[in-house]
């Protein structure tokens, strides 16, 4: 039997509220482990009213539920922003550095600005009070809200990339390492939105000159 879904609450936000930091931004990312496409980071400040929301970790929901709840997040949020780090930035900074960079860009766009942060184990360099517990997307309403925006926006982008790069099935696997993705890489080669420093892609790039040399007359 699968474990029951965890219901978020306001425990991490309340710790900041008690210290007078009422604008608490939840931060979460989507696409960190994918082989292609951006890593997408969202930041959300929800009203500090301790209201119960249907928001959950996006991984616990169907695509239709994610879209419905993401729209609700955008309606009720005090402020929200979504930013992307594309493969060029990921390859230059590494995935953690690119995720941090996108997170800081999203936070900089929040108006009004946050007074404290709750992230899903993302230990950002910041002067703001920060809580970064593991599984925060399942435990915190603010982080769950951010996970919904990050996931739905990244899925939308991967569907657009599927049309621009036919044959890779980005709309189906969203750039993750599914068998169909690996097969497409071997058949079509590396596209312009693949992360060249990620091991499966890097191995294929390293093998291409050897293959070309072997095919020379």
UniProtKB/TrEMBL annotation:
Principal location: cytoplasm
Signal sequence bounds: none
Key words of the record: Cytoplasm, Endonuclease, Hydrolase, Manganese, Metal-binding, Nuclease
Cited Pfam families: RNase_HII
Residues binding a divalent metal cation, per UniProt: 28-29, 120
Catalytic activity: Endonucleolytic cleavage to 5'-phosphomonoester
GO terms under cellular component: cytoplasm; ribonuclease H2 complex
CDD domains xref list: RNase_HII_bacteria_HII_like
Gene3D superfamilies per UniProt: Ribonuclease H-like superfamily/Ribonuclease H (3.30.420.10)
Domain RNase H type-2 residues, every copy: 22-210
Free-text remark on how the cofactor is bound: Manganese or magnesium. Binds 1 divalent metal ion per monomer in the absence of substrate. May bind a second metal ion after substrate binding.
Membership in a protein family: Belongs to the RNase HII family.
PANTHER family found in the cross-reference section: RIBONUCLEASE H2 SUBUNIT A (PTHR10954), RIBONUCLEASE HII (PTHR10954:SF18)
Protein name (Swiss-Prot/TrEMBL): Ribonuclease
Organism: Deinococcus aerius
